[in-house]
Write a structure and sequence with these properties.
Length: 231
């Protein structure tokens, strides 16, 4: 449903797991407990951002279902209106009349007149619920994924920035390049991303991880240049 505020969660793995992951990244300088703790907290914030995006995507699905339900109810109401006075298409009259005839045969329905009354009542309720569906969808649209804001994968920018900060703190060159033979993205930055992309936000593949890093680095560099231009 619509999200607000900032999310922060505790990663599935603990700080010891983070320390072991960092120790495998060939750091030039050791990372102390304070840095590990700070990195762990930032990972929690980033995973929270990821969860917020997933929640927004779910809102989009709900909004689509509300719109579809409203459309179906409106369509049914138009068809069922064929039994009422007024101008109607031949198809609407034929379908509504046949429904009334068979509804009159249902147990508890005493006559064709009662069946027509039941259809008219249902039609009015369908129109009412269709209207409510549209109102509910409009309310979601104001606070849901359609609102202006950061694109869905920009939470990865914060993750990339965290990796770059780690590299600077540990005296490591955050290399990132594309292998000419295999075409795969590789380097320290890719290794660090795959090591710290914990289960909650893991890229679907190594190639996807590389593409995320490439795009995030480009956005971060653009922001850095714009920052200095403003100054």
């Amino acid at each position: 449903m619509p999200t607000s505020g900032a999310w922060i969660v505790s990663p599935v793995r603990d700080e010891d797991a983070l320390r072991r992951a960092l120790s495998d990244l060939r750091l030039a300088r050791p990372v102390g407990p304070a840095t590990i703790h700070d990195t762990y907290l930032k990972l929690g914030q980033i995973i929270g951002q990821w969860m917020s995006v997933q929640q927004q995507l779910e809102v989009s699905t709900v909004a689509g279902s509300l719109l579809s339900t409203a459309g179906s109810l409106n369509s049914a109401s138009v068809i069922l209106g064929g039994i009422e006075t007024g101008i109607h298409k031949d198809l609407e009259i034929a379908v509504a009349s046949r429904i009334a005839q068979y509804l009159a045969l249902e147990p508890g329905v005493q006559s064709l007149v009662e069946a027509q009354e039941l259809i008219s009542s249902f039609r009015q309720q369908a129109l009412r619920i269709a209207h409510v569906c549209m109102v509910a969808r409009a309310d979601l649209a104001e606070d849901g994924p359609q609102r202006r804001g950061r694109p869905a994968l920009e939470w990865y920018d914060d993750f990339t920035a965290l990796l770059l900060d780690l590299a600077d703190h540990a005296g490591v060159e955050p290399t990132f390049y594309k292998d000419r033979t295999s075409g795969q993205r590789t380097g320290w930055l890719v290794e660090a991303a795959q090591a710290l992309e914990w289960e909650e936000m893991r890229s679907p593949s190594a190639e996807a991880c590389g593409k995320r890093l490439e795009r995030s680095r480009r956005r971060l560099q653009d922001r850095h240049r714009q920052k200095f231009r403003v100054r």
